[in-house]
Every structure is written in C-alpha cells, then in structure tokens.
Design a protein that fits this description.
mainly alpha
Length: 131
C-alpha cells in the first residue's frame, strides 16, 4: 500500500505534465480534417536515464536529519527528480524551473485530496534505507 501512494503521486505528476503538453500543442493543431490526416511525431530517443528511484534516495539522504524543513525538502527532491525525468535534465540550468517546482509543490500541498498522499510519500522517502 505504501509503495502505491508514491506511485500514485508520480502518476498524478506525470498526468499533469501530459495535460500541460497536450494543452500547449492544442493551438498548433487543426481540428479540420479526418483522422487519416493526423500527423504523428516520433519521440526522439535520448540516452538512458539514471534510475529515478536511486536518484531520489540519494538526494533525500543528503538532507540533514536535524533540518527543520526536512519533510518539505524531501518532497521537493522527489518532485524535482520526477519533473526532470519527464521534462529533461537540461531544465536544471533554467532558474525558472525551480520557481515552477516551487509553485507546483505549493499547489499540491495545499490540495486537501493530495495532502495525505504527499504525507505518505514523504514518510516513505524518509525511511532510512538498508543500503
């Protein structure tokens, strides 16, 4: 059950990203024409990505135990990692990315339906690893 809450949160994040991508593409597509005229774009392959779970564990492990904002920082590390994995690691060089992450985190944590899922995910993130 606990793993499902993290997966559910990741799924929600990915769903939101897909929605944003579709919304951004909408003005550029035509509603005129048949389905046969629809052009599909190929996904450009990229080099293999690091294991997302391992990356998140490493980032969370770097947060000092005595940090009073450790829970928030752990979720932020999770959120940043998932977003970079989905949108591309090149965004790490863009200062606007970090503002976007802050906005997303604030909105997600303010959502009463997501709050318990986020708390469960944070609990999982902060469980000491056996490695």
């Amino acid at each position: 059950m606990k793993i499902e809450s993290t997966s559910q949160l990741a799924s929600i994040i990915r769903s939101q990203i897909d929605s944003m991508r579709k919304a951004n593409k909408a003005p550029h597509t035509s509603s005129i024409g048949s389905k046969k005229e629809t052009v599909k774009t190929k996904k450009i392959s990229s080099p293999p990505k690091k294991d997302l779970g391992h990356l998140i564990v490493q980032r969370v492990a770097g947060i000092p135990l005595e940090d009073p904002h450790r829970r928030r920082k752990a979720f932020r590390a999770f959120l940043e990692s998932v977003l970079l994995d989905e949108l591309g690691e090149g965004l790490i060089a863009d200062p606007r990315f970090f503002r976007m992450v802050e906005d997303i985190q604030n909105q997600m944590q303010a959502d009463q339906e997501l709050a318990p899922i986020i708390d469960q995910a944070i609990d999982l993130l902060l469980v000491p690893s056996s490695t």
